[in-house]
Amino acid sequence: MILADTSVWIDYLNGAITPDTDLLDHALCEGTLAMGDLIFLEILQGIRDEKQFKQVKSKLSLLDQYILLPPKMVFKCADNYRALRQKGITIRKTNDVIIASFCIEEKLPLLYVDRDFEPFSEHLGLIKVGH
User: Fold this and answer.
1) Is residue 73 part of a domain?
2) How wide is the angle at C-alpha 2 spanned by C-alphas 58 and 103, nearest 5°?
3) The pLDDT value given to residue 89
4) Residue 95's closest CA among 44, 42, 46, 57?
5) Gap between the Cα atoms of 43 and 37, Å rounded
6) From the CA atom positions of the chain, what is the Rg in Å?
7) Rounded distance, CA 61 to CA 90, Å?
8) Is 74 part of a structural domain of the chain?
9) Residue 131 counted as domain residue
10) Chain Cα centroid distance, residue 84
């Protein structure tokens, strides 16, 4: 199983053809893609068209679902944020800290294009899907 960050989903839902959207499409077809609750929320929040909202909600609800911030993850997220900050790296979005920390803890590869995940890969062991 893998997770795909919102950054890749946005491109995919907008019809962009990139190596990352191809990987997402392949994972969907293979049944190896799961959904995180925060990612799902971010995707749904960004959809303006009611018909597309209902379609995306219906289709993505079929994926295996993960709760990314159960109580046990709160301290791990804080530890990871602080570890990066001690290296002079400040992560701008709390959701990215949660998504990356969950994937690190669960050894779940993450497909992303958002550069904010790079420090988690470089310093904390986040497994990046793809290139």
Assistant:
1) yes
2) 110
3) 97
4) 42
5) 10
6) 15
7) 33
8) yes
9) no
10) 19
How far apart (Å, rounded) are the C-alpha atoms in residues 33 and 46?
A: 20
Q: List the Cα angle 77/98/22 in 5-degree steps.
A: 140
DSSP 80-122: HHHHHHHTT---S-HHHHHHHHHHHHHT--EE---GGGHHHHH
Residue whose C-alpha is closest to residue 93's, from 113, 76, 115, 71: 115
Q: Which of 67, 71, 70, 85 is nearest to 124 (CA)?
A: 85
Residues near 7 by Cβ (< 8 Å), separated by ≥ 6?
112, 113, 114
Q: Could you tell me the pTM of the whole model?
A: 0.94
pLDDT in tens, 18-56: 999 999 999 999 999 999 999 999 999 999 999 999 999
**Hunting for tokens 């990215």 — which residue is that?**
96
Residue 101 belongs to domain with CATH number: 3.40.50.1010
Inter-residue contact 64 to 34 (CB < 8 Å): yes
Number of domains in the chain: 1
pLDDT tens for each residue of 58-100: 999 999 999 999 999 999 999 999 999 999 999 999 999 999 9
